[in-house]
Amino acid sequence: MCEGRSHPSLREGLEVLFPCLERALVDADQLAGLRALAARLAPVPQGGFECRLGPDPRVDLHQCLYPTDGESGLLRDGPLAIDAADDTVAQSNRASLGDFLAEWFDPSSQLHGCASQIWLEYDNRALSVGSLPSVFANLLQRPSLSADTYYRHAVLFLDRLLGSARHFYKDGLHACYAQCPAGAFIGHIGVMLSRSARVLRVNVKQLSPDSLIPYLQGLGWRGDAEELRALMRELHGFFDEITVCLDMGRELRLRPRIGFECVVPKRLPKGEPWGLFLDYLVEKGLCAPGKREAVLGWPGRTTPMNAEAPWPDYLIAASLLKPRDCFTLFNRRLAYIKVVWQPGALPEAKAYLWYRHKWSSKA
Fold first, then answer.
1. Which DSSP helix (H) or strand (E) runs through 12?
2. What is the pLDDT of residue 246?
3. DSSP 213-228
4. Which secondary structure element, helix H or strand E, spans residue 205, and what is its range?
5. How far apart are CA 13 and CA 18, in angstroms?
6. Is residue 26 scored above 90 in pLDDT?
7. The pTM is what?
8. 266 and 276 in contact (C-beta within 8 Å)?
9. Half-sphere exposure (Cβ direction) of 164: Cα atoms closer than 13 Å
10. Cα-Cα-Cα-Cα dihedral of 75, 79, 84, 85, to 10°?
């Protein structure tokens, strides 16, 4: 365990994963920032890295929470975020986030039934006192629920997380729901607590290239429709599922930049689908060739037998309480690639590298 700590940190688990991140993707400065950040976070067993594929070297860290007793205990007994003892405002924000998560973990609360996952997304930057993550909710989708019910769940999420500030985003969020064409729905919403200009992120699923522009224009978007439609059509040549990411400012102000999360690759007749798409990004100047290879090298499994760093003490201790045929390992995969369009600029591409610790009966 880390010296001077009574509880394990996320860094202990990530040290066995860092060697799988090639330096073309994560340079020494970014790696140092990730280590410093992870040392202040609880060892939640699943999360990921957000890696820019162009010249921008930044790599951010994500944690994925499930509403289980085990993960609630990790956050209760270990660190939640950056220590903020000397900053009363930041400490208040951190306490609010802690209260929000405690309510979500409570099976008897209304909030518990609104989201199947909560994502905490930490910017990897010069750490300042009181740094907070962006918070995303994976909203539960049930066929029996109406659009109005989904909207109320989203408002409850904002109410518990933002308090009175929620009214700045309520009308914009309602418009995002009301404008959804048949078959489209909102899968995630998020609040960028870490950003100076706070925005509401709304992720819309099942929009097509033909329904995209009418939907955006219904929200007041006035960008280059043909350029954006053409980009989405190109992306649809590689993917069966694309999520459209919107940034909503205060009141009803949709930001001009639009993100496309490319999630489910098509079964293409030849070649590895992710590799073919990365080739496309390299050709468009959106991905450095070295980063292409590093992204494709990430998927796999890390076990105590092939790890290049000592296995975390807390996982070794936990394994002693498991059956003899139960093994500790980390699965690694490429979750999705995001392409962000903004007017007057070259699009930006990012890869989201996922990991999850699991107990398996197969070594």
1. helix 10-14
2. 96
3. HHHHHHTT--S-HHHH
4. strand 200-205
5. 9
6. yes
7. 0.91
8. no
9. 0
10. 110
| Cα 230-233-236 angle, rounded to 5 deg | 155
pLDDT per residue over 280-331, tens digit each?
A: 999 999 999 999 999 999 999 999 999 999 999 999 999 999 998 899 999 9
**Crossing angle of helices 209-218 and 225-236, rounded to 10°:** 140
In whole angstroms, what is the distance from residue 357 CA to residue 354 CA? 11
Could you read off the pLDDT of 179-197 as tens digits, one per residue?
999 989 999 999 887 666 6
Q: Hunting for tokens 């990411």 — which residue is that?
A: 245
Measuring CA to CA, which residue among 235, 172, 227 is closest to residue 343?
Answer: 227
Task: Spell out the domain ranges in the chain.
Answer: 10-356
Q: Tokens at residue 251, please?
A: 């009141």
End-to-end CA distance of the chain, in Å?
Answer: 24
CB atoms < 10 A from the CB of 198, how many? 16
**For all residues of the chain together, what is the average pLDDT?**
87
Q: How many angstroms separate the Cα of 197 from the Cα of each of 63, 118, 131, 249, 250?
A: 22, 22, 14, 8, 10
Residue 322 DSSP code: S
- Bridge partners of residue 333, in order along the sequence: 354
Q: Tens digit of pLDDT for each residue in 203-249? A: 999 999 999 999 999 999 988 999 999 999 999 999 999 999 999 88
User: CB neighbours of 334 closer than 8 A, spacing ≥ 6?
Assistant: 274, 295, 296, 298, 299, 351, 352, 353, 354
Q: How much is the pLDDT for 176?
A: 92
